[in-house]
Amino acid sequence: MRGLILISLLANFLSVANAECANACSGHGKCTSYDMCICNRNWQANDCSERVCQFGLAHVDTPKGDLDGSGSISGPQVPVVENSFNYPYGTSEQFPAMQDTDLNVLVDSAHYYMECSNKGTCDRSTGTCSCYDGYDGVACQRASCPNSCSGHGVCKTIKQLAAADHGNVYKLWDKDVTMGCQCDAGYFGPDCSQKQCKFGVDPLYLDDVSTIKYSTFDVAIMTTDTGGTATFYDGQNVQKQGYWALRFYDAHGEDWVTMPIVAGAPCTTVIAALEALPNNVIPKGQTYCTLSTTTPSAGEFEGDVRGIDAQHTGRDNYHKSPYNREYYIAYNISFWDADVSSLDPYSAIMTHTSSYETNTVKLFGYIYRLKFFGNPGALQQPQVEVYLDGKRPSLMSASNLAGAIAGETVITKVWTDGQQGEFNDYFADHCNGVTVNIGRASYGVGVSFLTGLTSSEKILLQTCLGSSDFDTSNNQGYQNWDLGSIYYPHIIKLVRTVTTYTDGGYYAVIYYDTGATYDNSGTAGTFKLLNPFTPPDGYLTDSYEVYTTTGTLALTSNFSEVTFSFGSNTMYMTNITADLWTDVQMIYDGDISCEVGNNNAFKMKYIFHCLNKGDMFTVLNWEMPQYNPPHINLYTAQRLMHSDILFSIGQRFNDQHTGLPLTSPMQFMTHSITTDLATNWAASPRGRVNTALEGAAMYRVYKFFPATVSTYNYVAQCSNRGICDNTAGTCNCFPGYTLDSCSEQASIAL
User: Fold this and answer.
1) Are residues 114 and 160 in the same domain?
2) Which pLDDT score is estimated for 238?
3) Interacting residues of 63 by C-beta distance below 8 A, sequence separation 6+
4) Does a structural domain hold residue 125?
5) How many domains does one find in the chain?
6) In this structure, are strands 261-262 and 287-293 parallel, antiparallel, or unpaired?
7) What's the pLDDT at 398?
8) What share of the chain is helix, strand, coil (3-state, %, to 5)?
């Protein structure tokens, strides 16, 4: 059959008039002695008068049908119509087969090179593609952005869009051909033609006990000045005070940079710089600021720039500041990620001395706590800018240039301490009739628990908590509830009974210990706290309303733990488990991401609930809850990434575990989670490098599954009390509501 096809092709070539090449091959080919045209490249037809259009990867592959008239369609590995102009090496009747660089046939392949990328028709007279709607390029090789993004965005490839989304990576076949609009802040839609309206708080959300979580951020400007001072200069003139600026992000995600702020400026100066931003971005009189400072004698910000064991740092500083006053930061500041040359959370304790603070340095400087009452919603974390003079830093350490070169370090951090802003209240179920206090079994590092409940309040709280897992068949008693466990503890929100609507409350994680009897309720059993919640004003006598959820807090893996520096947006997943030392064949590296391929499918047997981009989670230490942060952040995973190896397990632990060879393939700190909020705590992997720390607990990732029935979207466009005109970006308020965000009730409003 193939011979017949070749004969047919030859007959076509020979069909030229008067034994001469038709039209002398149109000037685009060579006439041979056989009176046939051999066309130049990219020309075709028997007289070479037709042009071949450009090829590109096919957006959609199409079978070509019965090309040879055999009555059947051959498979992708059988070439037909060989030596044609379009397919000099032949083509196939079904979907085409492709080859790799070693000429191996790829049967399961797609997106073969096609003329006009299979999304256009070829104009043979010009050799140009006429692309179908939605595609453009000389070969119709890329999807086009609709309406050129309406002038309110930039057209980018999907690879570029992924990179702009917190550095995510996209490497599939269409990384350079699938296009989309990256809209300007405040605009949305596939063509960026729609404009967001102003956000506000739903006035019907508030009642006698509900409060609003406004974004509260701690902004640290610190130095490791060996001279024992908090002196900053501007990098150009050692006689001039250094300065910095704050990059603020509004609810639409648009960024605004303040005017320069002199290092050590009072709160009034910082607020003035924020309120000076244009367009009333930060309303006047609606930002609250407090300032904490440190001196060489006080040492409140004692921390390690390289890697003190966070668990023991937390213990020591817990004694120093057992109640962690609201505007006083004095615990567990371990900045080991400041040493970018090693990122080594063990460097401080590898000496195995009796002191866990051998590499500790004192940090001097200023920490501002900023609460944005005038900007509701989940705000993106601000950033400290210290390069206000181009490549030259405007904020450097030490009293002179020589001191700065000697290695003194400026550390700037931004974090929130359990007071993140929110669009949704995921804990909207008020447990009516229940108020609690915070108890301590012993001073400082003892067990924390809920107290102040009567026996009837206990029953009410148990009923409000309900199931802690995804299985109601194992619920207990007429309360129909779970006790909570290491796999599924209960997460709640505590809000002071006597407070203001701007309080916001704090998250807490609890479980019920049937054997503990020290809550003074008169009945057996105690609600224990996994985080040693500390009242913001330091008074344990405060009473709290309890808000619950039908959502679930679930352990991702009992084999994976995380390590992270204070004030960091990166958490590293590792696996330093007891099983590692007894089973050297175990190669699970702690990765809890949902991405699974042929080379890591085995990991799923170690994971209960995997983590995806966009999932919410928190980090907890079950075995030693006193070492958890007093205030819990709910983080959102923005990227889960695998990077090159930083250390191997053998390099980290061979000196203490001779049974594990130095060449162990087990990798350490290769998987990371990028978070939306910086950490308000620090954690080294559990103590496998020092015999004094054997058996220390590990910090695990707990994924939060919110429940729709327990969620109230209370910060929204037009405050949920109006309709947004997305063409103009203005609110049409319902009757009885007013202001440009419809956030205020007014009985006389029309």
Assistant:
1) no
2) 58
3) 73, 93, 94, 95
4) no
5) 5
6) unpaired
7) 61
8) 15, 30, 55
Are 26 and 96 contained in the same domain? yes
Residue 499 DSSP code: -
Dist. CA 2–CA 67, nearest whole Å: 11
Q: Nearest to residue 372, comparing CAs of 242, 273, 307, 285?
A: 285
> What is the rounded radius of gyration, in angstroms, for the C-alpha atoms of the chain?
33
The maximal CA–CA distance of the chain, rounded, in angstroms, is: 115
CB 642 within 8 A of CB 168: no
Cα–Cα distance, 331 to 304 (Å, whole number)? 12
Least confident of 306-315, 619-628, 721-730: 306-315
632: left (phi over 0), alpha (psi -120 to 50) or beta: beta
Tell me whether residue 423 is in a domain.
Answer: no
Domain's final residue, options 548, 563, 586: 548
Judge whether 495 and 508 are in contact, CB under 8 Å.
no
- pLDDT per residue as tens digits for the range 704-742: 999 999 999 999 999 999 999 999 999 999 999 999 999
pLDDT in tens, 138-180: 999 999 999 999 999 999 999 999 999 988 889 888 999 999 9
Report CA dihedral (138, 141, 147, 153) to the nearest 10 degrees.
-110
Q: Is 14 helix (H, G, I), strand (E, B) or coil?
A: helix
- Looking at the structure, do residues 246 and 365 belong to the same domain, yes or no? yes
For residues 630 and 531, the answer to whether their CB atoms sit within 8 Å is yes
Question: pLDDT for 457-488, tens place per residue?
Answer: 999 999 999 999 999 999 999 999 999 999 99
Query: Count of H helices and E strands in the chain?
Result: 8, 52
How far, in Å, are 63, 67, 68, 87 from residue 4 at the CA level? 22, 12, 9, 17
Instruction: Say if residue 9 is in the same domain as residue 78.
Output: yes
Cα–Cα distance, 455 to 523 (Å, whole number): 6
Cα angle: 748, vertex 749, 750; to 5 degrees: 115
Do residue 105 and residue 190 come from a single domain? no
The pTM score is 0.84
Q: What's the CA gap between 749 and 678, in Å, rounded? A: 43
Q: Which of 504, 527, 548 is the last residue of a domain?
A: 548
Beta strands in 160-242 (DSSP E): 179-183, 187-188, 194-195, 199-201, 216-223, 232-233
673-716 pLDDT per residue, tens: 999 999 988 776 654 433 343 445 578 999 999 999 999 999 99
Mean pLDDT, rounded, of the chain: 79
* pLDDT class of 19 with cuts at 50, 70, 90: very low
Segment of 22-36, 97-111, 333-347, 497-511 carrying the highest mean pLDDT: 497-511
Please compute the mean of the pLDDT values over residues 617-635 and round it to a whole number: 90
404 in the same domain as 263: yes
Q: What residue type is assigned to position 501 of the chain?
A: Y
Whether residues 234 and 374 share a domain: the answer is: yes
Domain span at residue 161 reads 145-195
144 burial type by CB count under 10 A (0-12 exposed, 13-18 middle, 19+ buried): middle
400 occurs within a structural domain: yes
User: How many Cβ atoms from other residues are within 10 Å of residue 589's Cβ?
Assistant: 23
CB 269 within 8 A of CB 276: no
Whether residue 560 lies inside any domain: the answer is: no
Taking alpha carbons only, the member of 710, 709, 705 closest to residue 470 is 705
Domain check: are 294 and 375 in the same one?
yes
Strands (E), 441-530: 448-451, 490-496, 506-513, 526-529
Residues 310 and 568 sit within 8 Å (Cβ to Cβ)? no
